[in-house]
Design brief:
Blueprint (H helix, E strand, L loop, with lengths): L1 H17 L2 H29 L6 H21 L3 H25 L1 E3 L2 E4 L11 H18 L5 H20 L4 H17 L4 H21 L1 H15 L7 H13 L11 H4 L8 H9 L1 H24 L3 H25 L17 H17 L2 H9 L1
């Protein structure tokens, strides 16, 4: 018992010595910021709308945030051999879960994106698939040295295509575009031939466009959203317009904590429009502060990439941070009506168990891959 306790203490002490504390504290701060916004701005109103106790949703958010922080630490503390070995089997499991969504998935507001098992709350399998796809693609491109280089890229493309088809079927165009964007950034960072990369991007966009065109009953909503975005008079822009109005009302310094009205008027204010709620109550300067945190986080990780020699780690870290930062800017773009509505949450800050768990998985892997001992051991192999 004593030796086991001392061994566990030794593992934690070793992790603490080697983990990048700036990145760790930034992740923790973002989770705490999400809790603060849930407590101060959204949970009580949402609770009243759904006939729940005043802080029912804050308590749920707190539980999910606590689980997420534990998961973040748990993933970041794992040894590198176990992490690399588990990439392929976990990726296959995530694909199986995506395949189960059309069969046993739960439909919410016209989209079937969630599944639920008896012993677990409902969750979105895509939140598990996203980081695992990045690691699997990096592994295909870099680690399979005996395979022709163009075949490696094609294998990663086909794995992406399978995921995108499954996501569009849910339908979930936002997550599809996020994965495609991250994959393109990874391919570009790997030094791939730009002509062939352009061809692949054109191929992906063309295939998706053809699917949407030939199945208008299933995917017509995508064209409708784009049409509504380009010409607001053609459709219902109530939520998007109210979000933009709230941002304008907030100005630079905001209306004051709890004084915003967007959360009373828009059903998804606590998820899809959380940045508009924050801007209305705390002002554009506070939103700028949040953006700066994400940019500094990206800058810190990119600096690690620039000095890193291991190509697998480089591509993995670039893909993982691109998942976060692209999602941030898609969310903000939708809130300020620079982009069509996508239903994209803001990492760490939006309410939702799947979103928080997904952010924790990405964060935990980033912390694991930026550990000093992980980098040293992998580079020595």
């Amino acid at each position: 018992m004593f030796n086991l306790r001392r061994e566990n203490t030794s593992i934690i002490a070793k992790w603490w010595r080697n983990v990048d504390k700036q990145i760790l504290f930034l992740f923790i701060f973002l989770f705490l910021l999400g809790l603060f916004f849930s407590f101060s701005s959204t949970s009580s109103v949402i609770g009243e709308k759904m006939n729940k106790e005043t802080y029912f949703f804050f308590i749920k958010h707190f539980i999910f945030a606590s689980i997420s922080l534990f998961l973040l630490i748990f993933i970041s503390i794992q040894n590198k051999k176990r992490v690399v070995k588990l990439i392929t089997p976990l990726f296959v499991i995530s694909i199986i879960l995506l395949l189960l969504v059309p069969l046993i998935g739960i439909e919410v507001k016209g989209s079937k994106r969630w599944i639920q098992f008896i012993f677990l709350p409902r969750f979105q399998p895509v939140e598990l698939t996203k980081p695992l796809f990045v690691l699997f693609a990096a592994k295909l491109i870099i680690l399979n040295v005996n395979t022709n280089i163009y075949n490696r890229y094609l294998y990663s493309f086909f794995s992406l295509f399978i995921i995108v088809i499954l996501l569009i079927n849910q339908p979930d165009l936002g997550q599809s575009l996020l994965l495609i964007s991250s994959w393109i950034i990874m391919i570009f960072a790997s030094g791939f031939n730009m002509v062939f990369l352009t061809f692949l991007v054109f191929l992906v966009v063309s295939l998706i466009s053809l699917i949407i065109y030939f199945f208008p009953t299933k995917f017509g909503y995508i064209l409708f959203r784009i049409q509504t975005f380009l010409d607001p008079k053609t459709g219902d822009n109530f939520q998007a317009q109210k979000a933009l109005d709230a941002i304008k009302q907030g100005g630079l310094t905001g209306q004051g904590m709890g004084e915003g009205i967007l959360k009373d008027k828009v059903p998804e204010a606590h998820t899809d429009y959380i940045i508009a709620v924050v801007s209305e109550e705390f002002g554009a300067l506070f939103v700028l502060f949040i953006v700066i945190i994400f940019l500094f986080l990206t800058f810190r990780i990119v600096n690690k990439v620039l000095i890193e020699k291991n190509e697998f780690l480089k591509l993995s870290l670039i893909g993982l941070i691109s998942l976060l930062i692209i999602q941030v800017f898609i969310h903000i773009g939708v809130n300020v009506r620079l982009l069509p509505t996508t239903g994209m949450t803001l990492p760490f800050l939006s309410y939702g168990g799947s979103s928080l768990i997904g952010s924790a998985i990405i964060s935990g892997i980033i912390l694991n891959f930026t550990r000093k001992d992980f980098l040293r051991d992998l580079n020595n192999e």
